[in-house]
Amino acid sequence: MRTSWGSATDRGRVRDVNEDALLAYPPVFLVADGMGGHDAGDLASRIAVEEFAQLAGQAAASADDVHACFERTAARIRNEFTGGRQGGTTVAGVAVTEHDGGSYWLVFNVGDSRVYRWDGEELEQVSVDHSVVQELIDLGEIEVADAETHPERHVLTRALGTGDAPEPDYWLLPAGLQDRLLICTDGLTRELGEAALQDVLVATSDPQDAAALLVRLALEHGARDNVSAVVVDVATSAGAHEDVHITVPRGSADLGPHLWDEMLNGATVPRFYAPGSSPSDASKLNEEGPS
């Protein structure tokens, strides 16, 4: 299965630093939303990208491959954050995988970044948020409409780097010819509802244009958080990209993918170091982070 894709990220209108990172390099596409403030959240999300980038260039990735990336990410974050320093990251994404001779999407998630699938007829949220408000919704204690204003709306029940073993959720979906996947951090879904997401995904044929438009619309709605989006299509050989898109924040607004010549030339996947622009400390593992 061949894919075409696009990606965009921005620090938003409120935050000084972009703690999001994203990876778009077949067979893996993901976003990571770091928590803990500058020099913590941005480091944690970058570690996730570095570990998953080790799968870059494979024809497909198995569940074991993906889970090994989660374990390495969690171990590195635990080793980095000692002495009471806190940091962590969500990770949500999809890997192209094979099963019984067919092509499948292996969707994975820890935290409240999300994966959606448009199958040509309807938009479905595939991943399930690991958050306090999602648990309350599942228990019937609050309505979906109440989640946006709930006082614990930013508190996660799972994340990488909390000291616990990683507990990602997985879904195995047959790949359809009309499939379009959206992978995004909650900075996008805080600003745009599913109807708006669907409108963009249906009306914008090029995946790079779709990802950029989604981020731009979030900015127009106020972008109270960092915003990242990756859009992935099943592609014919005529429409598939041969290049590589990997984006890691550089401490300022950034719309669109970085193109890494080293990867195009077949070199080893580089490590990424992205210094932020202002220091801050985190008092608890909370996505809202320091103001």
Describe it.
With 291 residues, the chain is α+β, with helices and mostly antiparallel strands. It has a single domain, classed as Phosphatase 2c, domain 1 (4-Layer Sandwich). It is built from 7 helices and 12 strands. The strands form 2 sheets. A 7-stranded antiparallel sheet has the order 8-5-4-3-2-11-12, covered by helices on one side. Helix 1 packs antiparallel against helix 2 and helix 5 runs antiparallel to helix 6. The longest helix is centred in the first third of the chain and has 18 residues.
Order of helices and strands: EEEHHEEEEHEEHHHEEEH
| Physical arrangement of strands within the biggest beta sheet | 8-5-4-3-2-11-12
Architecture, CATH level 2?
4-Layer Sandwich
Number of strands: 12
Shape: globular
The domain tally reads: 1
| Mean pLDDT over the full residue set | 81
CATH level-4 homologous superfamily: PPM-type phosphatase domain
Q: How many strands, which pairing sense, and closed or not: the largest β-sheet?
A: 7 strands, antiparallel
Helix content: 10-25%
CATH level 3 topology: Phosphatase 2c, domain 1
Cα-atom Rg, whole angstroms? Answer: 17 Å
Name of the level-1 CATH class: Alpha Beta
Distance from first to last alpha carbon:
43 Å
Strand content: 25-35%
Please describe the topology of this protein.
Blueprint: E1 2-10, E2 20-25, E3 28-35, H1 41-52, H2 63-80, E4 88-99, E5 102-110, E6 114-118, E7 123-125, H3 132-138, E8 169-174, E9 180-184, H4 186-189, H5 194-203, H6 207-220, E10 227-235, E11 245-247, E12 258-259, H7 261-264
Antiparallel strand pairs: 1-10, 2-3, 2-11, 3-4, 4-5, 5-8, 6-7, 6-9, 9-10, 11-12
